[in-house]
Design brief:
6-stranded mixed sheet; single chain; alpha+beta; 669 residues
């Protein structure tokens, strides 16, 4: 005999009416948003790794002297504050052929120059004295293919040189701390380097950090979607249970309905992600926009996310019905839920002590991610306990009907009240963390200086005379002086060389760098952009990820709060009807809803925000930086936006409250 579970589930879903259909559409929409956000996060992490791998060939990996076939030198120059990576290659005489670099058809010969499409366009746009004159004058520029580029916007040049050229000689080797990742030289046999470029190496870690911080709001959203219509479902299934349905059949019916809704929503989110891939590829991160293929997560990840969101929504719906399966009469009689236990506080305290002790030393990226996941899990366990105690305290000291109703709601259903605010509470941690994690390394900046390194005082004086002549010939007004005292009051930061102080904007600085290139003995002149790059690259990535994470976390948290608020109104429509029959005004009911949200939000969000600030401070201490003063303003803005978002989410369900209580005589049992 075939099982009646699926036909009965389908019949009940069809006969659930307009409100049932609305709940299912809202749940599917939430699942779609969750799947879409998860896929975008995974795409950013995987794509960042792919981009980094495609830049590893530029950092030369030294080969044994006997087997080396070519010399590779990498250096970096800047134009309009954008890095231009220049790879110089020279084939050694009487050695075997060297394979072509990624993105090139063949190993470049002497005098040949290949450029990325973005650099070719910039060379055409800018005057030659600001950019093109820094490079050799080939008959024509070759093009570098996508296999050798991290981004369509990346500026890269590959230049073929003679073995004796200064650009590939020992003078092209870096020596300063700020040369790491920007200047390097080695004899090679091929392009098998494993160290990614300075400008792509940190992308994957920062993207992964943002993804970890976004996972919990997405989980909260999916859990809220699984709870939509839970009260009506409980009553319906409790009646079936009392009529003779087994617990297994009840849970199977719930799982089938939730899985169908979750799968439909998750598939819609996956299709939206696939359709929007070209638009997502246009969002800049790090070195620029993306190749569309870099953001494609692949079919296994796509299937895993769809299944994961479906399972999460299904589990959320099934766990809401444990009481139906074990005590259907208690559900039918609206019995009070079980209180939260003290063990939640004990486990949270133990986890918090462990996290604080673990942040005292050096934190690796993987360890930080584990600690963040542990914190989220501990707070998710702790939240309902706090809500329960808040309800009891508020009920004891309540002086107004709205406060008393809110307190009763908090203590009667602490888990449900926690689900309403959990997304924004945990988003408060993200806001606190990123508001103070904007690093300020503290080195003095000299944006008006362009410097040329030298080997000593005598060489510096000779270079100074050459620099004055080059600048005069280019028509660039500048004051030239030598630096050999090892001080840190110039862009050389303790090195010996010549400093030109240029008046004017970025155009003048670019013209000065171009004019002084011949004096660099194979190295490009040093500007503030070059010196700041190791620190600015990290802070720029953290800033970008923090902005995106804050925006997405608040949007997802607000959506989950709105869904939970709407579900709460639908689930308690019988209670609201009885309260209206007893004379309670709609205004009092609405105020009670606001207070039952504001009370736990203020207490719990304040705690998570403070912990986020502490986590950001630990990150700053690990990186050796100080807190940027703009972080306080950003934190205040995030707190304000979060409060307004929560009030908007509650206000969005106010018309629904008005509708379900419009005729209490008919709706109340």
């Amino acid at each position: 005999m075939p099982s009646p579970v699926l036909p009965l589930t389908w019949h009940l879903a069809r006969s659930s009416g307009r409100r049932g259909l609305q709940s299912q559409v809202l749940a599917a929409s939430a699942a779609a948003v969750g799947a879409f956000v998860l896929l975008v996060m995974i795409a950013a992490c995987l794509g960042s790794g792919t981009r980094a791998d495609r830049t590893a060939w530029r950092v030369p990996e030294a080969a044994p002297a006997r087997s080396a076939t070519a010399v590779q030198a990498m250096t970096t120059t800047y134009v309009r504050h954008r890095p231009v990576t220049v790879v110089s290659l020279a084939q050694l005489p009487d050695r075997g052929p060297t394979p072509a670099p990624p993105g090139l058809r063949a190993f470049p010969k002497k005098g040949e120059m290949y450029v990325s499409p973005a650099l070719a366009e910039l060379i055409r746009e800018l005057p030659a004295r600001q950019l093109a004159d820094r490079f050799p004058k080939p008959a024509s520029y070759g093009a570098i293919g996508a296999a050798g580029l991290a981004s369509p916007d990346e500026l890269l040049a590959v230049v073929g040189r003679a073995p004796g050229d200064q650009a590939v000689s020992k003078s092209a080797e870096g020596g300063g701390w700020y040369d790491d990742g920007q200047t390097a030289r080695a004899r090679i046999t091929g392009f098998t380097g494993s160290q990614p470029s300075l400008f792509t190496g940190a992308d994957r870690q920062t993207a992964l950090l943002g993804a970890v911080l976004l996972v919990v709001p997405v989980v909260v959203l999916a859990a809220a979607a699984g709870r939509l219509g839970a009260a009506r479902r409980e009553q319906r299934l409790a009646a079936l249970r009392l009529a003779g349905a087994t617990p297994r059949q009840i849970l199977a019916m719930t799982a089938a309905e939730a899985a169908a809704v979750g799968a439909a929503g998750a598939l819609a989110g996956a299709l939206a992600y696939t359709a929007l891939l070209p638009a997502l590829a246009g969002v800049p991160y790090g070195v620029g926009t993306w190749y569309t293929g870099d953001l494609w997560v692949g079919l296994p990840w796509l299937v895993a996310v769809v299944l994961g969101v479906t399972v999460l929504l299904t589990v959320s719906a099934v766990t809401m019905l444990r009481q139906v399966a074990t005590s259907p009469l208690g559900v039918a009689q609206q019995a009070n839920p079980r209180r939260t236990r003290m063990i939640r506080l004990v486990l949270f305290a133990a986890a918090l002590v462990y996290i604080v002790q673990s942040t005292g030393g050096h934190l690796t990226n993987s360890r930080m991610i584990v600690l963040l996941a542990l914190f989220y899990g501990a707070f998710w366990l702790f939240g309902p306990w706090v809500v329960d105690r808040l309800g009891r305290i508020a009920g004891r000291f309540a002086r107004r009907p709205a406060t008393l109703l809110a307190a009763r709601r908090l203590s009667d259903d602490p888990r449900g009240a926690w689900r309403t605010v959990s997304g924004l509470v945990l988003a408060g941690f993200v806001a606190g963390f990123f508001s103070v994690s904007q690093l300020d390394i503290g080195f003095p900046e000299h944006p008006d200086q362009v410097a040329v390194l030298s080997d000593g005082g005598a060489d510096a004086r000779h270079t100074a005379a050459e620099a004055r002549a080059l600048l005069d010939r280019a028509g660039v007004e500048a004051t030239v002086s030598t630096v050999d005292d090892g001080g840190f009051d110039t862009v050389l930061l303790g090195n010996t060389g010549v400093v030109a102080r240029v008046s004017g904007g970025p155009e003048r600085i670019d013209a000065a760098v171009t004019a002084l290139t011949p004096a660099g003995q194979g190295r490009f002149p040093v500007s503030q952009d070059y010196v700041s790059a190791p620190d600015e690259t990290i802070t720029d990535r953290v800033s970008t990820v923090s902005t995106a994470t804050l925006l997405l976390s608040f949007l997802v948290a607000t959506a989950s709060a709105g869904l939970t608020a709407a579900a709460g109104v639908l689930d308690r429509r019988r209670v609201y009807g009885l309260l209206r029959l007893s004379g309670t005004s709609l205004r009092v009911l609405d105020r009670a809803r606001v207070r039952e949200t504001v009370l736990p939000l203020v207490v719990l969000a304040g705690g998570t925000t403070a912990m986020g600030v502490f986590g950001g401070y630990q990150l700053n201490k690990t990186a050796g930086g100080t807190v940027n003063s703009s972080g306080a303003l950003q934190l205040a803005l995030c707190v304000t936006v979060g409060a307004l978002a929560m009030l908007a989410a509650i206000g969005g369900s106010r018309p629904l409250l008005r509708r379900v209580t419009a005729n209490p005589v008919q709706t109340a049992d």
